[in-house]
Structures are given as structure tokens and as C-alpha cells.
Design a protein that fits this description.
By secondary structure, the chain is an alpha+beta fold. It is built from 5 helices and 5 strands; from the N terminus they run ββαβααβαβα. The mean pLDDT is 93.
Length: 133
């Protein structure tokens, strides 16, 4: 969050840690909780677009992870898009990761403030540098 403006970001790796891609998105005025849920939605959508139908989502937001298991907790304004994303055929395992282990996603979210809408990154952004490895 910068002021009341939200952004989200995430990255995709394989089981060996190889970079597959990343996304950043400027969400405009929003809440932290809503931006976390929107990040999950983007992750499901980008996974489906790339043909990745089995993913493991890690997040440092325990409350947003709870919403994955109880769809009634997804904000009403996002519920239709959430249900559509859940119907893309992507099987998802989710788990909590401490903020210190989520540095790359936090950096991507910060980068999201500088773009319009959502952007797919097919190469590792230099700003992630050694944090990725």
C-alpha cells in the first residue's frame, strides 16, 4: 500500500526454483485484504493462461488464505471474479509463508504501483536481484 493505493504481485517458479514468470498490477484505491485476494485471482488467471494447472500458492496473509478455504469471506465486489478464476481448472495448494520469506512478492507489489493495470513479466526483474536466489 502506498497511501490508500494498492498493488499486487507474484511470481511463478518450478519445483527446482527456476523462474517461470511474474506479474505486477496497480489496483488503485483499495484495502490490503482485497489486494491480497486480487493477487490470488491474478495468480490463478496467469497460471491458466500459461497452462500451469497445479500450483502451490504461498502468501504472508493468513486472513486472505482463510478466504481461499471459505469463499464467503471473499469481498462481495470480488466474488464473481473469484468464482470465475476458481473455475479455470487450476488445482491449488496454499500455505502461509512469513513476510521475510515473501520478499520477492513484496518487491513485485511495490513495482505494481508504477504500472497501469496488470503486467506479465517473462524475465526476472533486476530489482529482485539476489532476493530471488
Amino acid at each position: 500500500m502506498v497511501g490508500n493505493h494498492a498493488a499486487c504481485g507474484g511470481l511463478f517458479r518450478d519445483h527446482l526454483g527456476t523462474f517461470f514468470g511474474a506479474f505486477i498490477c496497480n489496483l488503485g484505491p483499495d484495502t490490503v485484504f482485497s489486494s491480497e485476494i486480487q493477487g490470488y485471482i491474478f495468480a490463478l488467471e496467469f497460471a491458466a493462461q500459461n497452462g500451469w494447472y497445479n500450483i502451490w500458492l504461498e502468501s504472508d496473509s493468513a486472513s486472505a488464505l482463510t478466504a481461499i478455504k471459505n469463499h464467503a469471506l471473499v469481498p462481495v465486489t470480488l466474488r464473481n471474479r473469484w468464482h470465475n478464476a476458481c473455475r479455470l481448472g487450476v488445482q491449488m495448494i496454499s500455505s502461509h509463508i512469513y513476510r521475510e520469506g515473501n520478499v520477492c512478492a513484496d518487491r513485485l507489489a511495490n513495482m505494481g504501483h508504477s504500472v497501469q493495470g496488470g503486467v506479465w513479466l517473462s524475465s526476472l526483474p533486476p530489482a529482485l536481484g539476489s532476493d530471488f536466489f
